[in-house]
Each structure stands twice: as structure tokens, then as C-alpha cells.
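Work Package 3 (structural annotation) set out to generate three-dimensional models for the target panel prioritized at the project kickoff. During this period the team completed the workflow that converts sequence records into C-alpha cells, so that structures can be stored uniformly alongside our sequence database. As a representative example, we reproduce one entry of 462 residues exactly as it appears in the project archive.
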Amino acid sequence: MALLIELPQVGESVVEGTIGKWLKQPGDTIQRYDPLVEVVTDKVTMDMPSPVTGTLLRILAQEGDVVPMGAPIAEVETDEAPAAAASPVESVADAVPSAPAAPVNPGTTGYLIRDQRPVGPTGGGPGGQPPGSDVPSPASSPQADPEPARLSPAVRRLAREHNVDLYRVSGTGMGGRITRQDVEAYLEQRSTAPAPPPAAAPPEATPAPTSAPVPSPAVSPARNGEDEERIPLTPVRRMIADAMVRSVTQIPHAWSTVEVDVTSLVAVRSGLRDSFQQREGVEITYLPFVIKMVVEALRENPTLNASWDNDAIILKRRINMGIAVAGPEGLIVPVIHDAQQLSIAGLAHRVADLTSRARSRRLTLDDVQGGTFTLNNTGVLGSTVSQPIINPPQAAILTTEAIQKRPVVVPDSKNGDAIAIRSMMNVCLSFDHRINDGAESSAFLQSVKRRLEAIDADTPIY
């Protein structure tokens, strides 16, 4: 029998996912729990396993499509019952729920129903009109949406950039949905189509009043050439871009930096490095020391471990520390939950585990949810000063920069001030100015500085 494979629910806060890459193709034999498709959400990238053993008949959601959770994405021929999230169907149309008789509560079902819209026989324009038709539907009203429904942000943005009437674009996605590839194909066709010949003016036509020429709104798409190369965005890159734009447009960023003398920290870590590796099986880096001191500073300055809620500031009782990791497809921020309960050694184990799984794409949704503060070690990239972008809805983000040996003026009890070579590190903070002002952010930075400079051989590791 034929089964529709649906995109499963992966968390209450995740309502849709982007099809990243199909790992199987129509005609392929698949085993239950075999990786079937790569799904990208705003939280994590994951491989979705097949719920049944059988043969992949059709792919209903193309790569790059944004699909609501619970929507069908593929059809499989199988003789067994599904493990989860699959239902027998006779056709794709059978999977489309009919309009409810009574209002439903918001949620995933609400998204599926709200986003649906009748399409024509070709799966295109409104009111049954083909996608390329210039004739508006008689049922159309001036208040109707100017675009087809259920478009991804990437498709809407591309259409706006190139002034594309989306009712002229044929959709090849699930249920006639327009994908980014459909818009790019339309742009390619439009750019190569011959220009229509100019209409001949009537012999006795009255000359029109002189006016300034109006430039055409159409813009030719960027093309590969000898001097440039167009690189399509991956789903992960697109989500990072959207999140960063949302952060800098919605959050009033301010930033500050302090210089920290970490000479003692460098010595302590160097003395522990080999024995800790042999004893614990993981390397101890500077990051667990920094996390521990940042956690203590957050407990002392709780408004940095908070979020904005329009008419209130929400203080977080738990300190869930996000650590920025450069993954194979872009930046990802796994979370150390309840970091305030862990020792430096415990933090070293959690850092090693999360970074390893982030780089091998084995993180779960729980690993990237619930962060209350983010720490980014940009120093490993050679950076000395940075202005990080806040990870919404958090109140702040901190970066630790490269450790450099520099001549520094230090107090000398016998001769007054002296010049010494010290290991120095800049610590940079970006904070939400709606929640904190300079006084609070400076107090937090000074707390971090004081604690890092106080690390010595007596600092407990366990």
C-alpha cells in the first residue's frame, strides 16, 4: 500500500522546517530508520529517519521548500505499518484536511489550515486561473492578498528584489507551491525572452506631453561570469541571515569591552593540561574556566541573564549557557543547561561533547533550545576586538578574544610602577539597551574581569 510520510513534530516551538537535502531518491529501497531526508529548522539541522521499510515512490516537498510540521513530504510503497507520522492515502489530495466546522486552537493544526488556499487546475493562480494568466479571477477582490499564500521568506524576498509577479510563476513544489528554484527559473526565462517589438504610432496621433522617462523596475538577476560567481544559499545560511537581521533590527545593541590580565589563568591551565587529559579523557581549554566565571558574574548581575517581553523584563533563574560553534554548514549554538551546577571539570566535558556533536551534525533539538546567555570564543580565530550580535531573545552575548603577550604597567611594591610582559585578553559584551544600561553592563564586565584575574593554583577544578 502507499503511505504518505509526514514531517514529524520535533518540539512545541518549531512549527515548520526547510527540506535541506533528500538522502534517498524515487525508486530507492529504504529500510525503517534509514536516514531519509535532511530537515533544517531554526533550531537545528537533523536527519529524519524513514518510519517504514519500502520503496520511495514520490518526493512531495522539494529541497528548499519550507514545510509545516505534520505536512506530507513523500510517498512510500510499503507492506508494513508506519513507526510514526505516516498514514495510508489514495492520493495527495486525500492528505489535505478540509476546513473545520468550528474554530480551532492555534498550533500546528492552525498553521496547516490557515496557510491553505484554493489553487487552479494547474496548481497556480487564484480562482482557478493558470499561473501565467493575465486575466484576474472574477472572485478576486481589492482586499485579496497580492501574493499566493504559503510562500517562504526566501521566495518573497527574491520576488521583491526582482519585481516578480508571483501569479505568473508556475509552482513545482508540494501542492503547486512556488519554490525559490521556480522564481529563479522564471527570472532566467524572462531575461532571455526577446523584447516585444514597439507598437507603431498612428499617423495622426496627438503627441503626448513631454515627461521624464520612467526606469523599468525589472532588475536582471546576478549571473556567473568571468569576474564573479553566484553561490546559492544553503538553508542553514539563509536561517542564520534571517536571525541576524531580526536581531539587529529589533534589538537596540550597545557594546563595551574590558582588558583582562589572564597570565595566571594561562599558567594554571598549562600546569593542568596533560594530567587532566590523562585523567578525564578530554582536553581542558580556557573556555570552561571562562564559562565558570561568567556564570558566577551572571548570578551577581541577573539582568544580563534575562529577556525582553514588551511590558516586562523576564529574569531567568537557570543559567543555560550557549556556546557558539563553527559547524560544517554555519554557526550553531548548542546549550549547556544549568551551567551554574557544573564545576570547571564538568564544563570541560560538556564543551567537548557539544562541540564534537555539533561538528558531526549529531545535535538534538534539546541541545540547542533554552539558552539564556551566549558566549563566543572568537579569539581562536585570531580576533582581538569584536562586536557580537545578540542571539534573540537573550539580553547579551560575550566574546573572549585572542590572548596576546604585551608589555603592561604593573604595580611594584618596592619601586612603584613597573613594566612587565603579561598575557592579556579583551572581553567584549553586546547587550540589549532596553534591558540594561551602561552601569549594569559595566558591573557585569568588571565582575568577569575580577574573577578571571583571581584564578590561581588554589582555584577548585572539581
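The helical segments are 108-114, 153-161, 180-192, 235-250, 263-280, 286-300, 344-359, 438-453.
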